[in-house]
Amino acid sequence: IGRENPSLVRTFILDNQGKVAYSTDRRDIGTVIDRFSHVSCKGCHSGPVVVPHDTTMTITVDGKRVQRYVHIIENQPSCHGCHPASTRINGKLIIDRSLAPTDKLVKTVVIIISAMGAGCLIILGPFLWRVLSRGVNTYITEIRLKSTELVTLYSIVERLSATIDLEELKRIIIDIISEAFGADEIDIVMPNEYRE
Predict the structure, then answer these.
(1) Which of 23, 30, 141, 158 has a CA positioned 20 to 30 A from the CA of residue 97?
(2) What are phi and psi for residue 88, nearest 5 degrees?
């Protein structure tokens, strides 16, 4: 199996007592693995009562990150020729697959995405800068205009509140309008005693 798929680190079958019945590393055959104390089993078995939740997990075996797949070999009626019918589980098929190719692929994708992002920033940066600066300039112009309006309104209110004499108010209004609009001629039309 390992020769056909180079990403497989190890494949082995445990019998229901935890003894290695088959392994891609022949030296492991016959050894007993205690699921509660062996470091590679603690991902699933953290105590005698806990039943494993996952059949696939990422663990570290011999300093390598591997994806471990555990398949329970149930005692089916077809197995009763070799295994007693009272046994629920005959063993476990465990496959450790190296995550190095996956990690390499992820790193390559990250590099490609980063390079594309940098390229987009280099290409689109000046364009975005122009678009954003136009928008900002529009707001700055609007702020200046509003500021000028406020200063003019403050000036008008300040001048108008300086007197209550009608003739003086007319002269002040003519001066303000002349300054604000740069008018050459200003006419003030006021109602007469008949409201005309």
Answers:
(1) 30
(2) -85, -40
- pLDDT tens-place string over residues 94-136: 888 888 888 888 899 999 999 988 888 888 778 877 777 777 7
CB-side neighbour CA atoms (13 Å) of 147? 6
Beta strands 20-23 and 8-15 are antiparallel
Q: Are 11 and 96 in contact (CB under 8 A)?
A: yes
Question: What phi and psi values does residue 96 have, to the nearest 5 degrees?
Answer: -105, 120
Q: How many CB atoms lie within 10 A of CB 90?
A: 19
C-alpha to C-alpha distance for 64 and 7, rounded to whole angstroms = 12
Q: Which helix (DSSP H) or strand (DSSP E) does residue 20 occupy?
A: strand 20-23
- Rounded CA separation 23/1 (Å): 10
Q: Model confidence over 72-93: pLDDT tens digits? A: 888 888 888 888 888 888 888 8
What's the token pair of residue 64? 């390598």
Q: How far apart are CA 70 and CA 56, in angstroms?
A: 6
